[in-house]
Amino acid sequence: MKKFIPLIIFFVSLPLAQAFGAEVPDRAEGEGQYNRLILRGGYVIDGTGAPPFGPVDIVIEKDRITEIRNVGTPGVAIDPDGRPEKGDREIDAYGKFILPGFIDLHSHIHSLDSEQGVSPEYIFKLQLGHGITTIRSLGSGGDKRIVGFKKRSARNEITAPRIVAYPVFYGINSPKEARKRIKEIKKNGGDGV
Description:
Elements: H1 5-21, E1 36-44, E2 53-61, E3 64-70, E4 89-92, E5 97-98, E6 102-107, H2 120-129, E7 132-138, H3 143-154, E8 162-166, H4 175-187
Parallel strand pairs: 1-4, 1-5, 6-7, 7-8
Antiparallel strand pairs: 1-2, 2-3
């Protein structure tokens, strides 16, 4: 029986290894993208230190905020005639606060075999759950890996923040090597160093 234990462990762990093999699966949850999304009746905290304002309707067309319309006064019923036209999708944000997406300027996209032992999918969802909508990823396993995540995120294929790729820039010993590495990063789709 003891000689079969390694074989049993192998067959039990095989499905787990296969499940973790795909670093970030294609997007299965979420909705969108919408031609016209409207957040209705929320209060905006704009990040400038000013007090919240609203209620407002925020119109987002093809992933861009096109209008923030003040639709009333706190505590007073909203006049439906002063609201933007209907959208493909509308979210009732009345009584809720709307903040700008946060940007994490120093992020790493780890993998299961890294010291942290967590998948990129988990990291991306954790970031989004905390309001981080853009990351600047430093290093993170090579140019192709980080740029691959960046492209898949931009195409809305994975559940992830917008990724700004800053591949690894170390081991440079001369201006000539630096120029060569910068050209290589640019050619591979990196955004900076």
